[in-house]
Amino acid sequence: MGIFIFTHLSKSITQEEWKNVYEESLILVDKFNFCTNVKKSINNIEVICLEKTKDTILDKRWIIFKNNNRHGWITIGDLDSRRTAEDQYMLQNHVGEYGYDKDAGDPLLSKLCEISKISDKDEKKYNDQICTIFGNKTQGEPYHLGILAIACLLESRLKGKVFTEGDITRGQVAKAVEIANDFLKKPIDIPDRCDLKKFYERINKLDITNIQKIHLFISYYLGKKDKEFGDFVSHNFDEVTIHGYFKDVFLNNYYGTSYCTDSLKLYFTISNSIEKLCELINFSEENKDKTKENCLKFRLFLRKVLIFTRTPCVYGLWTIFQQNTTAWVTKHLCCIGSIPFAKR
């Protein structure tokens, strides 16, 4: 277990593009006062000391690179706090190490295999088109913010060719960008995944299905899943796509689990169709929705729906429930018996 930052890069990045961002990264390496450890002899005693990170030929003890490609910078922490974790590095000759593919796509595509069903062929294709830097444990030490600032620099300068994920929050990203902009000559933007419109536009350009697009959008948007988010999703994705997304979400996601509860909250943030929701919920693995056990689960489910829809943060869906679902619930009373509605 640990705290990580992963920055995925498309292999369509040229060496010329990389050269420019590498030079800018050195500014942040200096300003965040990154450090590495070195062996020194003091009074004929060999000791390990912290030394300021610089653009140099990396020591072979760190990692073996291709073709003796060792020009770059490496850090394990910062001199201000003198707290360290694992090594993070960038190479000057990026293309020489990772290769170049002019047809490589957005690194977001490599995340599809984690959230949606894709063929083994497509999974290999998307993964072969990217490389990943950083990725070792930062453990949340102070240099975590500096690494994140450099990741944001890469995303801003290499539009659509970089994607950063890991143990990061929107607040950390905003702070990292703010600090970076105090030092860089040209300001950088907050990453696309922190902006609803920009992230949607980026995903919408991808040659994938609408279901895959909504999976990427909801899974990797870095921000609050609040009313603004729900309204944006319902406005930009059609009902069929939204229904298909939640069909995937609730598949094998049986009622009564904590994940199902979280999914219900997300559903009510985006949609207000109780009837369609009930078509999606699995009450047991056998899906025999007229057994006594499932009747009880169904009753508890409807009770939870009432609790959710009466909670202020679910934006007044109690009224919607009353107006639009009375007939539907009445139709199902024959198989579930009386429903223990909470008192208003």
Query: What portion of residues is helical?
Result: 40-55%
What is the 3D form? elongated
Strand content: 15-25%
By secondary-structure content and strand pairing, the structural class works out as alpha+beta
**Low-pLDDT runs:** 285-292, 311-344
**Kindly, what is the distance between the CA atoms of the first and last residues, rounded to a whole number of angstroms?**
45 Å
Order of helices and strands: EHEEEEEHHHEHEHHHHHHHHHH
Continuous helix count: 15
User: For the CA atoms, what is the radius of gyration?
Assistant: 25 Å
How many E-type strands? 8
> What integer is the average pLDDT?
83
**Biggest sheet layout:** 5 strands, antiparallel
Overview of this structure, please?
- The two termini are 45 Å apart.
- Strand 5 and strand 6 form a beta hairpin.
- It contains 15 helices and eight strands.
- It has 344 residues and is α+β, with helices and mostly antiparallel strands.
- Helix 1 packs antiparallel against helix 5 and helix 7 packs antiparallel against helix 8 (210-220).
- Strands 2, 3, 4, 5 and 6 form a five-stranded antiparallel β-sheet that branches.
Helices and strands in order:
Elements: E1 4-10, H1 15-31, E2 34-42, E3 45-52, E4 56-57, E5 71-78, E6 84-91, H2 94-98, H3 112-115, H4 120-128, E7 130-137, H5 143-157, E8 162-166, H6 170-183, H7 196-204, H8 210-220, H9 227-236, H10 239-250, H11 258-270, H12 274-280, H13 292-310, H14 317-324, H15 326-336
Antiparallel strand pairs: 1-7, 1-8, 2-3, 2-5, 4-5, 5-6
